[in-house]
């Protein structure tokens, strides 16, 4: 039984919840740090594209990355549709950043290297 007659959670259950939630918190922190590193790289890509007048989006690469991530998700037992939605969200944000970098470069309002 997970609760006592007084409605309190069994201490063993509470301990397991704390353990699992600590792991979730650690994973969330790692995800945030990995996303930060990813966006540092994509910012550099955006500056490189702007310097060389390349388009902010690369639909071919995006399609390949989505397919690659779907396969990785399947292998990891993660819903590939969720993985695709997640990557599409990230790609949209990256393209938005690249468009802003390109616009700022054209207007001379940002340094070309970062």
Radius of gyration: 21 Å
- How would you sum up the global shape? elongated
In percent, how much strand structure appears in the residues? under 5%
N-to-C CA distance: 57 Å
Largest pleated sheet: none
**How many beta-strand elements?**
0
**Count the helices. How many?**
3
Structural class: mainly alpha
Helix content: over 70%
Order of SSEs: HHH
Q: Estimate the mean pLDDT confidence.
A: 92
Low-confidence stretches: none
Describe the structure.
This protein is mainly α and 114 residues long. 75% of the residues lie in helices and 0% in strands. α1 runs parallel beside α3. The mean pLDDT is 92.
What's the topology here?
Layout: H1 11-51, H2 59-75, H3 80-107
Quick recap of the structure?
The chain is mainly α and 114 residues long. The chain has helices at residues 11-51, 59-75, 80-107.
Key features of this structure:
single chain; mainly alpha; 3 helices; 75% helix; 0% strand
